[in-house]
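re the bet — no i am not wrong, look at it urself. input seq straight from the record:
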Amino acid sequence: MRKIYPGDSYKLVYTPSGEVVRFELVRSPWEKYVVYRQGDSLVAEKDTIPLTHLIVSAEGVVRNTLWESMRSAGIEPAVIMNFTDILSYDFDFVTDTRNGHRFRVVYEKTMFGDSLVGVGRVLLASYQTPDSTYTAIWYVDPEGREGYFDPAGKSMKKALLKAPLNYKRISSHFSYHRFHPILKIYRPHLGVDYAAPTGTPVVASGDGVVVYAGWKGGFGKFIHIKHKNGIETMYGHLSRFAKGIRKGVRVKRGQVIGYVGATGLATGPHLDYRVKVKGKFVNPEKYAFPAEPPVKRKYLSEYKKYARSVLEGARILANSAESGEGKPGYLRAETGKGKI
């Protein structure tokens, strides 16, 4: 223990002469630190309090919004955010979610009695539409490489995110012949315009290096990022840049780099998002960006066996009498010392 935070409680035990013999700092019901006198020495200890570690499975059907439907199924907000992030490379939850779609998630959860301590890793994320099923399974191979893979062992992680922001609608698609609303002429629009409120966070679509962050003519406040494999992304009409974003800075996939605006030639707040591959502009809505490497061939048999066990465990639980929509079930429960 090196810090004391607002909200921590403490207790001092001392003799009538004022000598302190014991000090207790309680950070939470499962996290307590004790210092006491033993002879001429002071002894510091960290109390270990049993916590219950669960593997939780929950599923349901989308009604109204995915967020409301998953919350109704008893799924914590942090898990919902992770679920959509994991599958966002293949499915656009902003525009393509529909009533009747099905979701299933298996994740780690830690409890202290009836109180939630926290949620951990999502182990399985699955989303089903009438046409497709998107499934991601967490796996760590014997060499320590980790990530999400589909049941066949292909990586779920693509070079770029499906979209670099949560948007309301696409106001203009990629086109070689679009009528410009301000210039009143036909000209190519080699990107996608995502309409969103001013101030909406914009994230880097992939890991890379900022090669430009500044004003760029009709694009207004503009960011240009170079990624590996000859991929470049551009973000225009921003209202402002995120703190620390400047030329030469390395950014991570999903890191906030700026905020939606209407700077430059713009009729309203939106993000003009453009992608180049090996020097040529491509349509980010349709281009098949490469995935990260799959599970190594020498581990593929082991992985598929593991994937089948995770999928079967989730299915058995979903069909059992104790499980039902709106009621998470438990694949495994372990009680152990608190991780404090």
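see?? The helical segments are 66-72, 77-87, 297-319. told u. also The two ends are 10 Å apart (CA to CA). so pay up
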